[in-house]
Amino acid sequence: MEWEPIHKSLQALKVQPNLIDYEQVYRDFSWDNIARELDGLPDGRGINIAHEAVDRHAHGARRNHLALRWLGKDGAVQDFTYADLAEQSNRFANVLRKLGIGKGDRVFVLAGRIPALYITVLGALKNVSVLCPLFSAFGPEPIEQRLKIGDGKILVTTERLFKQRKIAEMWERLPSLEFVLLTDATAHVNEDILSLPVLMAEASPEFTIPPTDPEDMALLHFTSGTTGRPKGAIHVHKAVYVHYMTAKYALDLHPDDIFWCTADPGWVTGISYGISAPLCHGVTTIVDEAEFDAERWYRILEEQKVTVWYTAPTAIRRLMRMEMEPLKQYDLSHLRFIASVGEPLNPEAVAWGMKMLKLPIHDNWWQTETGGIMISNFVAMDVRPGSMGRPIPGIEAAIVEKLEGERVRVVAEPYVEGHLALKPGWPSMFRGYLHDEERYAKCFVDGWYISGDLAELDEDGYFWFIGRADDIIKTAGHMVGPFEVESALLEHPAVAEAGVIGVPDPMIGEVVKAFVSLKPSYKPSEELRLELLGWGRTKLGSAVAPKMIEFQDNLPKTRSGKIMRRLLKARELGLPEGDVSTLEKSAEEEKVTQ
Ligand code: ATP
Ligand code: MG
Questions:
Q1: CB 562 near ligand 1, within 6 Å
Q2: Which atom of ligand 1 is nearest to the CA of 483?
Q3: What is the pLDDT of residues 384-429, one digit of tens each?
Q4: CATH 3.30.300.30 region(s) of the chain?
Q5: Which atom of ligand 1 lies nearest, measured to the CA of 468?
Q6: Closest-approaching ligand to the CA atom of 562
Q7: Which of 223, 317, 363, 419 to mutate to test the pocket of ligand 1 (most atoms within 8 A of CB)?
Q8: Which CATH architecture has domain 10-454?
Q9: DSSP symbols for 43-76
Q10: Which ranges in the chain are annotated with CATH 3.40.50.12780?
Q11: Is residue 264 lining ligand 1, measured as CB closer than 6 Å?
């Protein structure tokens, strides 16, 4: 099905967008101008993410503006102004200093979305230590693995997680780990296991950020592990230019916005856009401690008067599956912009947004490695459902073909699929995979960063996602991207989610196979299976349509909600599952490991 573009008119937008004339902003863009919109440390002492995010506002007109509103899962609410965040993060930076944790030392945090996590992130950045978040539902193994790779020197966690994740047991295998700080212990346990509240109360509320080189390491982010073993991507303080600039142009943040990024700070989105980007703009950011719940989410959008909402396709598909009519039950009149990242956003989801929320969902593309949004649908630009949009100002993106001998050719023609590549040099580009230089070097070919994703361009410069290079299916002489097949299946009213793989076949190379989960009101049946096979043929033609369909209640996903096609394939073929440290567990399995 051809999806009609969604036309925008400036008159219909509630707020004048930050980016109106894309071509002009793109052409005139310079990083120096962005640097001028930010502050820099006093006396030319460099640039520090936490200064831009917090201190700059705490010392200025936004001092008493609500910076972060925390919604506890049991109904508690905690508000932090910019002045509060500055004071708390100063205290935490002093705690680190007192314990001898300095520049470049690795500060790990393992916690749910609790206030202490946000203070830890900001305080560690102030101290020019390196912050590495660990997703709170990780079991002991992935935690140990990451603490080891990252040379964790100090770990901030809760009493519950400390016990349940068996941190004490793994400690003897972690020679770099010196201290554990417990966010909820009322007293120190011993010399190495300390109470964070006690240390915070003793610490001074004053702290001067030491000189910070723009190239000083700031963050260590492990990738989602969708395609294999997670890699530790290194980011520097200068990345803040991209956090700020993309929030201005791609998320269209304005000073009075109430912004909600639903991503967990265990992943890059939850740090770049859950913390740094909104705070750099001095807006109010919402943090919800609870897990996904459709009614709760709509209620938060309503009660908190959220204006800009940044979420993920997996969450949108879950909302779609509920078959609710949100606008009938909730007042979402404050919401003016919705964006999504993490996986391809099926055109059906964009259409659902238009129908159910009266707003399009704006897809954007980036990776842990890129540190910030690189390709985006902009508020003032027409949305082409299924497209990721156009490159952010300051970012040169292209489709390239890999040639023999480490050469590439930039594909100028539209509708030719190739590698999605970026011209290196943007400020939030990763500076390495920790302890894996070879792998890092391999990402750069002939002057381009090769992302590992395949895409194509249309004649107007919009990028269209095809699939990850690893997931492409070769069938009877065709290259099939799973996204196209999954999107077609998702248009069927019964389908909630689809994951598509290639199953080796001696005759045609690979056969397209789809795993499908159904909406609650549908049950698997032979009839429905045949119907979906027919649906696929009609929508896609027989060369691309799935030949096999299997119903599955839940598709395997990463903890950040991405469908793990490699696991569907390994299970189908009876092959080893590989690294499953980021695999989402079912509620029952979760109970067993806790
Ligand atoms: P790993 O690298 O460990 O396999 P991962 O690639 O899923 O995991 P992330 O860095 O979290 O780790 O995800 C980035 C990837 O997510 C992109 O390379 C792309 O494949 C996918 N992605 C992100 N946004 C989009 C989007 N808007 N459309 C399509 N795919 C997207
Ligand atoms: Mg990746």
A1: yes
A2: 29
A3: 999 999 999 999 999 999 999 999 999 999 999 999 999 999 999 9
A4: 473-593
A5: 20
A6: 1
A7: 223
A8: 3-Layer(aba) Sandwich (3.40)
A9: GG-B--HHIIIIIHHHTSTTTTSEEEEEE-TTS-
A10: 10-454
A11: no
Q: Given pLDDT bands bounded at 50, 70 and 90, which one contains residue 585?
A: confident
Whose CA is closest to atom 11 on ligand 1?
224
Q: Is 468 in the pocket of ligand 1 (CB under 6 A)?
A: yes
pLDDT at 590 over 80: no
| Alpha helices for 131-226 (secondary structure H) | 140-149, 159-164, 167-171, 196-202
Residue 344 Cβ inside 6 Å of ligand 1? The answer reads yes
Phi first, then psi: give them for residue 589, nearest 5 degrees. -60, -40
Least confident of 6-15, 64-73, 139-148, 353-362: 6-15
With a 6 Å cutoff on the Cβ, whether 465 touches ligand 1 is: yes
Q: What is the mean pLDDT of the chain?
A: 96
Question: In the structure encoding, which two tokens stand for residue 135, read together?
Answer: 């997703």
| Residue 480 · residue 511 · CB < 8 Å | no
User: In ligand 1, which atom is closest to the CA atom of 364?
Assistant: 27
* 492: CB partners within 8 A, 6+ apart: 531, 532, 535
Superfamily of the domain at 473-593: ANL, C-terminal domain (3.30.300.30)
* DSSP for 171-192, written as a single string: HTT-TT--EEEETT-SS--SSS
Instruction: Report which of 84, 86, 140, 88 is spatially closest to residue 110, judged by C-alpha positions.
Output: 140
pLDDT digits (tens, 9 = 90+) for 546-582: 999 999 999 999 988 899 999 999 999 999 999 998 9
Is-contact 75 62, C-beta < 8 A?
no
**368 Cβ closer than 6 Å to some ligand 1 atom:** yes
Q: What is the CA radius of gyration of the chain?
A: 24
